[in-house]
Structure formats: structure tokens, C-alpha cells
User: What shape does this take?
Amino acid sequence: MKNIKDIFFMLIGTFLVAFGTYFFLAPNHIAAGGTSGIAIIINTLFPNLPIGLLMMGMEVILFTLGIIIIGPIFGGKTVFCSFSISALIFFLEKIYPHIKPFSSDILVQLIFGILICGMGMGIIFNLGASTGGTDIIAKIINKYTKISIGKSVLIADITVTIAATIVLGVNKGLYAILGVILNSTIIDRVIVSLNSYKQVAIISNHGRNIQNFIIKELERSATIYYAKGAYKDDKKEVIITILNRKQFLKLKNYIRLLDNKAFITVNDINEVLGEGFSNIV
Assistant: This one.
């Protein structure tokens, strides 16, 4: 079930990357990093070479590198994502050939293109894969330096933006540099939002019922602390648990119906490591 869910979200991510690249970045010749950026540069010099086909060729070399250095699971997912993106762009080229910019405002199209692509890339990276190309290099940088994925993408794509400045001109090159910076920021933000949790502390006279709901309904655990209330000098049971946003909303609604006088504090957590969450690496 989890594998099917991962494939579904990877397909969503690849579609977003392909859509943003083909409809917003490519028509304006904005080479905002990655193999898509390299393909756009080559396509500008040699218009008869399709962007999708160029991307497929580059992916073969780089995904082999990813399999060797990072591992076969990452490599397999990356192959799936990278070729899906290339195939989708190749398919879009057949359906909507000779696509033109939506407007004369390149900056607006850059922002929309990068926003769409960055969201897709963030989803894919969060699933332990990459979109291929220079993102494989970024993943390798992330693995050995612990620099965030977004910043690693920025490092890996600097070369592409420099090439874009030379081939496409300073104006296009500056747009490409801005695009890479925006892209790295969006990727990190998407990954943080997808991995955000709520640390919830609950004090209630119905503690046992709340504990059972957390364990049986939400399939999470909890930690129990005992504290003394300063106002009444009485003993209090404090239930601490960590939930995703959907689980937290269910718990809050349950407590509201069970004990509307319960005391609850909530903190946003950007990363949780250990059993039931991400592995400690």
C-alpha cells in the first residue's frame, strides 16, 4: 500500500516538474538548472534536438552515478521519476508543439514555472528520490555534507546558470540565477512542510480515554508525565504526543467533544527522528 502511495505522489511530482518546465520555463528559454536547463540551452543552439530526448540521454549517465553512490532503491526511484518527466515533456511536445510564452512578462512566468517545478521536486525528494540529472549530484552533496537538499540543488545548478548566461545572454542568465535561488528555497520549504508535526501536551480529567484514542485510533504512542498544579497544588497527568496535522485535528476534535475544559499546548516540530518516524541517519 505504501509503495502504491509513493508511486502516486511521485507521479504528481513528476507531472508538476514537466508542466512547469514545458509551459513556463522552456518557452522563455529560462535554463533554471538541472538537465532541463541544459536541454533548454542545447535546444536554443540546436532547435531540431527535442528537449525531452536530450533530457533522456543525460539521465542515463547521471542515474548510473546515483545508483553506484547512493544505492539501488534511490536509483530505481530516480530512474522512474527522471524518465517520467522526460516522457511527459516529450508527450507534451507532441500534443502542444511550438509552445509560446503566455505573456511578455518573463519574471511572472519564471516565478510560476519555478513555483510549480519546486513543489514537484520537493515532493519527489521527500520520497527518497530525485528528478535525475544535477539533482542526483545535489543528493550526493546532501548525503555527505548534510547541507539541505534545496541548498545542494543550488550548488549543483550554478554551473548550468553560468552556461545559460553565456549562451542565452546576461538577461536570461540573471533570470536563470534568480530561478535557481527561488527553486532551492521552495524545495526546502516543501520538504519542511511535508515533514512538519505537532507536539501536543494535554492535561485533562479524561486522560485514560485520550490515551486510548491516541493509541487505538491514531495509531501513535504517548509519554505520560506527572506534574503539580501551582494554583490548586494538586497532581496533574500530562500526556505528550507527536502527530501529523491530520492526526492532530482528529485529536483536537475528539478532546473538544470529550472534555472542553482540557488544557492543551501545541508546538510545531520540523523534524522527528526515531521509531515510527524518519530513520536516524
